[in-house]
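Recap from last week: sequence in, structure out.
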Amino acid sequence: MLLRYKKTYEKIAMGLLSYMPGEKNVKKLQELIHLYETDSRWQLYLLKENEDFIGLIGLQMDEDEYTIQHLSVNPSFRGEGIGQEMVKRVRSLFPEKKCRTTSETESFIEKCYEKEEGAEL
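Predicted structure tokens:
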């Protein structure tokens, strides 16, 4: 189940974000979480399976598109298609918007779309 971030998930979200390259600094993680909490254009979603939060995807929303800023999966669950599933679920949440990537998320998102025949960024 993909759940929209709320304050009670703060430590879980920070933990999942810390798995991303370059997101290890606690102060930087706190600033990032603050951005997701205070800027309505930034939306964070957590993937919960059974009782565990196993992934996270962060978006920056614009009028006609969204940018996948963060994508992280608990290392214990990597290689199971969870990241790809989160990308797919976000696409279904915002079918009318074009998906963009950052330099950090680009290669993974491209792989997701290659696996999904006929999909476009």
